[in-house]
Structure formats: structure tokens, C-alpha cells
Design brief:
Blueprint (H helix, E strand, L loop, with lengths): L1 E4 L2 E4 L5 H10 L2 E9 L2 E2 L2 H16 L7 H14 L5 E10 L12 E9 L4 E4 L3 E3 L19 H12 L4 E5 L5 E4 L3 E6 L2 E4 L10 H9 L8 E3 L14 E4 L3 E5 L8 H14 L1
Parallel strand pairs: 7-15, 8-9, 12-13
Antiparallel strand pairs: 1-2, 1-6, 3-4, 3-5, 5-6, 9-10, 11-12, 11-14, 14-15
């Protein structure tokens, strides 16, 4: 399978560990997972903006490729690896090899890969829980998708052990923060509420898109708010979690899909094809 590394096309199997070393040893890097429809990346500018801001936060360096160059390389990989209706492109950026925690002034490697994907998924869930194995905490990099994601792995292991369809992560103060790999929106008193980034949640691309672009013509708003599990009881309120690849929603017992949720689902279907 082909890939792009530092603006050069390579065979992915030839990528040596010495190139990956710093990301492998320290998790010193970032990644973006991008859903592509008919070889066109969905919300690519949002992904590039987050990746660029993340690299700048980690190192004061600039992203070495612009959005058009990255889109061209993704489309090239889709053609090279066999065009598919749905594709996942992944961008990984990690600092060049240097021993020790102090990173110095080294630049970043940039690896772009693409492979076949299932269609964008929207499904109802009914088994979920509040993760007890981890708590989120804000830092200046907590809103980015970093190569160091062990807390999500631990929450994922708990989700699997308890046979949940979704795990909800709280922050160190007990506020609701996010889903296992997605942002949380809760419907309360006619408006959608989502946790603040101060809870340590990822600044998801779909979260940002929704906050900037979606507002129901009926007056339903999308608001950033503190969510307390004892006040916003997730068993009693409709809610959904969403990321670039899928959306899951929950409905209280005997409740049909409210129009506020129907409208969100229709807009996400339009966006993802």
C-alpha cells in the first residue's frame, strides 16, 4: 500500500522504526482521521486547522503542507490504492528523532495514508455508562488528537468489559466531558448542550462544525455548557455523540426521536453523503 511521507510517495511497508521513533517512544505527535466520500475529504479545512494549531502548540512550527497539497495527496492515494466509495484518510505528524524528553528545535514528519471505509454510521444505542477507569483533565494539548491516547484505550477496555455501546468520560471535577472517541451533545429544554473544552475533551471537527453552522429554524441552539451527571441525567434525556466517522444517539425509554434530533441527523447525512 502506498503512502505519502514528507511529500514523497513511499511503500508503507518500507517505513522504518527509526523514522517513527519519537512518536513511538514518547507519543510526541498528533493525528487526524478524515472521512472521504468519493475521494473528497469531508471538512478537510477543519482537520487541517486543528492539526496546524496542534503542531504550533507543540513546537511553534508550521504545518509543512497546505490544505490543497494534502487534498491532492489523499486523492492520489485513493486512486493508487484502488478507488472506493468511502475512504478513511489518516494524517500523522510527529517530531523528528531526538533522544530524551526535551525536544529541541527539530521539525515534524508528516505521514498520509488512506484505506477503504464503511459508510458514515448513524446508530441508536441503549447501553452506556460513566467510565470509572479514567478522568479527563484540561491541558494546552487536551483539545488535540495526540499520539498518546492511553486514557481512551483504558476507557475502551472498560466499555468492552461492561458490554456498553458507549462510554461517557467525566473530567476531574465530575463534569461530563465526552464520549469514548466523540463529542457529547445533550438535549435539554429545547437546546443542545455540549461540554466546554475546559473539561479536557477533544475539540472535535464535527463539534466545531455543529457549533459554527447548525441552528434549527425553530430556534433550537447549540450551546457550550457545564453538564453535571446528577442534573443532566443521561438516562432521562436524549443525547448523541459524534465524530468524523460515526454518530450514536440515545433516547429515554418509550421516547420517539424528537424533531431536534431528526434535524441534526438529516444535516449530518447531507454532510457525509
Amino acid at each position: 500500500m502506498k503512502a505519502w511521507l514528507n511529500n514523497q510517495k513511499i511503500n508503507l511497508k518500507d517505513l522504518g522504526l527509526e523514522v517513527l521513533q519519537r512518536g513511538f517512544d514518547y507519543g510526541d505527535g498528533l493525528f487526524e482521521t478524515i472521512f472521504c466520500k468519493a475521494a473528497t475529504p469531508v471538512l478537510l479545512d477543519y482537520h487541517i486547522d486543528r492539526l496546524s494549531n496542534g503542531i504550533s502548540t507543540l513546537s511553534n512550527k508550521a504545518l509543512p503542507l497546505n490544505s490543497d497539497q494534502i487534498q491532492d495527496q489523499i486523492k492520489d492515494l485513493v486512486r493508487e490504492n484502488g478507488e472506493q466509495e468511502n475512504t478513511i484518510a489518516k494524517i500523522r505528524a510527529w517530531r523528528e528523532a531526538q533522544f530524551g524528553y526535551t525536544p529541541g528545535n527539530s521539525g515534524f514528519h508528516l505521514l498520509i495514508t488512506a484505506h477503504e471505509s464503511k459508510p458514515y454510521s448513524i446508530q441508536q444505542v441503549n447501553r452506556f455508562g460513566l467510565a470509572q477507569s479514567v478522568r479527563n483533565q484540561w491541558s494546552k494539548i487536551s483539545k488535540f488528537k495526540t499520539l498518546s491516547a492511553i486514557q481512551y484505550v483504558l476507557a475502551g477496555a472498560e466499555k468492552m468489559e461492561k458490554d456498553w455501546q458507549e462510554a461517557i468520560i467525566q473530567d476531574s471535577n465530575g463534569l461530563l466531558s465526552e464520549g469514548l472517541s466523540s463529542n457529547l451533545f445533550v438535549l435539554k429544554e429545547g437546546h443542545w448542550l455540549t461540554p466546554d473544552l475546559s473539561t479536557g475533551c477533544i475539540e472535535g471537527v464535527m463539534r466545531k462544525y455543529i457549533l459554527e453552522n447548525l441552528e434549527d429554524s425553530t430556534g433550537t441552539k447549540f450551546l457550550v455548557s457545564d453538564l453535571h451527571p446528577n442534573q443532566e441525567n443521561l438516562n432521562e434525556l436524549p443525547w448523541f455523540t459524534i465524530n468524523s466517522l460515526n454518530m450514536s444517539y440515545f433516547l429515554p425509554e418509550n421516547q420517539s426521536v424528537p424533531p431536534e434530533l431528526e434535524w441534526v441527523i438529516s444535516r449530518i447525512r447531507e454532510l457525509t453523503g
